[in-house]
């Protein structure tokens, strides 16, 4: 074990030494996720990724990209290289595996995902300028702290305020946006590019100015009670955290409109399940709900026989009342996501029953480009 750890240290030290200029294939580029914008990893013109790692003492070096492991090839100078198969556009976590030890790549910026600090590759997609920083009025993202009576601790929020908030006096609607499993409150603002999306939509007049609040839903109830799982009971700990702690803090701290019609809840994967249960079963709190790529309808282990009416009472038996409670109910999923068929089926069941639900799918699996597009569309429906 000591020898393995020493190998990792050497790899990290050598990989972090001086940024040397290298020659790369024509049409390739360095992703924005790199530390060294002149080095590796390198995205080639077909979307494949070239990796180079200096680890002269290692016996085996691999790249784990999107769950696929690639064995790297050792050169005479002790550097290891590999070019992957073409990747779909978007944001992808990856890891180095050095002699069996999975570590973050020191050549990449670090992001909290997969339950740990991770490396990432950002592969460009044509036509997605709304996900980039543009020459438009820009808002701010700030970290603020609130006291949680559920967790009995101080907890962080990341809050986006639109351009003009600091100079004005108007009140704003609020979106409460939830991350997926293995991520936290940083996901939507960093990996998800929430500020860039909102700045550009607002500047184009496609979305109304709004505040977006990203909280950490990895919360424990110190007094016991249900703390997780895709069920109404399993949502109670975070429901209490959100409704009894987060929302009151936001409404005390920021200039916001404090009625249900000016609140929205949305989220991805685990956060999509939270939005489905908490948002749809709390119409007195939220009039707008977005559910992105949740697996509770099927496509993940343990999900089966989802009883829509049981989980959201009245959605099929008193549909007129249900519809009247929500201004926007939107669902989405990636077209290559194992959850897609189950999601389409449940949407069709809702529509057959008269539920007014908007739905869209986008190219991609269970990954951030799909969720950025989901937020991009959802935000344009809100508060109008």
Characterise this structure:
The chain is of the alpha/beta class and about 375 residues long. The protein has helices at about 1-15, 185-190, 195-205, 235-255, 270-280, 310, 320-325, 340-350, 370-380, and strands at about 40-45, 50-55, 60-65, 70, 75, 80-85, 90-100, 100-105, 110-115, 115-125, 140-150, 155-160, 175-180, 210-215, 265-270, 290, 330-335, 360. The protein has an eight-stranded mixed β-sheet with strand order 11-12-14-13-15-16-17-18, sandwiched between helices. Strands 3, 4, 7, 8, 9 and 10 form a six-stranded antiparallel β-sheet that branches. It has a four-stranded antiparallel β-sheet with strand order 1-2-6-5. A hairpin with a 2-residue loop joins strand 7 (about 90-100) and strand 8. Helix 3 packs parallel to helix 9. The chain is globular, with a radius of gyration of 22 Å. The model is unreliable at about 1-20 (pLDDT under 50).
User: What series of H and E elements makes up the topology?
Assistant: HEEEEEEEEEEEEEHHEHEHEHHEHEH
Q: How would a textbook summarize the main sheet?
A: 8 strands, mixed
The overall pLDDT average reads: 91
Helix content: 25-40%
**Shape descriptor:** globular
Strand content bin = 25-35%
Strand order of the largest sheet: 11-12-14-13-15-16-17-18
Question: Could you give the count of β-strands?
Answer: 18
